[in-house]
Write a structure and sequence with these properties.
- This protein is an all-alpha fold.
- The chain has two domains: about 60 residues, Homeodomain-like (Arc Repressor Mutant, subunit A); about 130 residues, Tetracycline Repressor, domain 2 (Orthogonal Bundle).
- Helices cover about 60% and strands about 0% of the residues.
- The longest helix is centred in the middle third of the chain and has 23 residues.
- The radius of gyration is 22 Å and the shape is flat.
- The N and C termini lie far apart (about 55 Å).
- The N terminus is likely disordered.
Length: about 220
Amino acid sequence: MKKTGRREALSRQRILETALALVDREGLEAVSMRRVGEELGVEAMSLYNHVANKAAILDGIFEAVLAELPLPQPATTWQEMLRERAHALRSTLRAHPNVLPLFSTRPAVTPASITHVEKALDVLMAAGFSLRDAVSSFQVMFTFVVGHSIYSYRPVRPDEDASPTYERLSEADFPRMRAVARMAQGRDPEEEFEFGLEAMFLGLAASLPSKRGKPRSPSP
């Protein structure tokens, strides 16, 4: 008797994995309930048993990318903890460049995504930041990592290329930018990222109150 293959059961996780793979191949504009259903070999209506709408799929893609973050490494200071998380986020986003616009326009919405924010706030508050300052500090760090990743890795179509031609500028009027043109070949985005990250941590550390009790340890 001929055996028939059993189709894998539809689930939220399978939908999100399929949607992320679609974005990796074709970009965020390819995502729709109909298209994701086609990728899964089911009618779009079947997806509604697991995700409410396209917005829920986009929130789920956000979550699926964060789920790929490596586990945190041991650290002794809040700077070390957040520096390691910043590098982990940047590395993960680099693996999914088509998802970058999503991280620049949507907040963490699902509980699994919000968990990452919760842990970062706990680290900052354990270091002595107030809740308000911890939130601001997290936003500064997150937007820097995402923004610099967009600058470094976002795919650009040939008809959208906006590469500057500083070498064509007048040397008399723009001597600094002509110098930039001459050093452009040696520019390293990763060195720039490190420079910005360290400058940010210096600024955040300087904003801590000078007199504060011994910080508690962050929650496990």
